[in-house]
Amino acid sequence: MNHRRSNLQMNRLTRKLLPLLLAGYIAGACADTGTVRLTVIDSGTQRPIPNAVIEIKSRTGETTETRADNKGLVKVDALTAGLYTLTIKHPNYQPVRLPRVRVLENKTTPIQTKLASINTSVEETLVVGKAVSGNSLNAAGSSFIDQEALNSAAGSGSDVLRSLDGLPGLFGDGEFSSFTVRGNSPRDNLILVDGIPFDKVVHFSDSFGEQEEIEGGGRYSVFAPNTIASAEFQPGGWAPAYGGRAGSLLKLNVAEGNPDTPSYRARLDIAGIEVGYDGPSGFHDQTSVLFSARSYDFGQFFETIGLDDIGSPKLTDIIFKSTSELSDIDQVSFLAIYAPEEYQRTLDNVLASDEDEPGNFEDVELVDSEADNSLVALTWTRLFGNDGELTNQIYLRNYDERTSSGEAYPDLVSLDAPIDTVPVRNNILNSRANTKLHTIQTNDP
Description:
It is a single chain. By secondary structure, the chain is mostly beta strands. The chain folds into 3 domains: about 35-120, Immunoglobulin-like; about 135-255, TonB-dependent receptor, plug domain (Ferric Hydroxamate Uptake Protein, Chain A, domain 1, Beta Complex); about 255-445, no CATH class. It is built from 5 helices and 23 strands. The protein has helices at about 1-30, 145-150, 210-215, 300-305, 345-350; strands at about 35-40, 55-60, 65, 75-80, 80-90, 95-105, 110-115, 145, 190-195, 195, 200-205, 220, 230-235, 250-255, 265-270, 270-280, 285-295, 310-325, 330-340, 340-345, 365-385, 390-410, 425-445. Strands 15, 16, 17, 18, 19, 20, 21, 22 and 23 form a 9-stranded antiparallel sheet that branches. β5 and β6 (about 95-105) form a beta hairpin. The longest helix is centred in the first third of the chain and has 29 residues, at about 1-30. It is elongated. The protein starts with a helix and ends with a strand.
């Protein structure tokens, strides 16, 4: 009797728990899927291309085919998280293949792809290993790198400048945030961020360490991982509008926020903290926001690993970008970059430089340096006519660096002398570099 009663109770419990277990299983099964949101645009007119055929192929060989709507938009749901290959075709355009599109669980991956129209007068087709995305009138040596390729470049640590190594005409050893083009460093090349000249894209280009190591670049990029959507590099042969530089042209496009699904990130380590947000604005349905902030104090890190003679470099990077679709033909974006840095090398650091041989102080320089680096820009893009596009930009760029250097003389006192008795000379050399630029520019491609 008791056994039968136990079976009845177990059956009732099973009937109650089974729907919950199934619901949990289904939720778990659906949790590892994501969405791709693709917009197909004519590279010449910047207008959407309706009825383009999109083929989505997973790494396991499964293929899904769909078609863009009248606005050139297609949205594919319930894709298993992972890497996919997308092929976009249209009878009037050259097909485009995107070999690495990453789908994240519970997130929409927005992609914008431009197709070039077919020239019916072409009698010969040259097949190359990698197509150049963007302007078909660019130089033959131009290269285009998307966000996935930038983040996954071997040895780059998701640093945008180190990710460029291996492009035609460019060399970078991958150790620092630097590159060279025909012997010219980043400071000798033209760098555009969202179409705006912005050459101070690295930290600590002159502050500490051997300058030969960084080859005119810097030690850290001002751009945190995932903040750059794409990079376009031209080693030479570009239009006179970009003249005045000896080396190359590098265009960096700051990523836009995800218009559909929000995502957050935070990281804390011994050097500092990094936080970020990518998603809808919350105050306007057609506005997306990208926010990234990080602050690092490497002085504590160097002290922990026994390199406290280097000093205390500190950096902060704050990037904010909002993109608003005001109508089918009007888009407004706001970009703000604030990337200050500090470097101090005090008497304590000087006294720590005799670690290998007590009394033999390898570096007696005292340094107090700080720099403010900022960019604020407002961009309005409007489509007009059948193939016209007008871009208006107003921006303010500011860079202000102040450096004071001196010297300590610990060899003039005994090793056990109090630190306040060590002779020092401050402010032997003072320097200041200031650049402030406010401009309104209009582009009509």
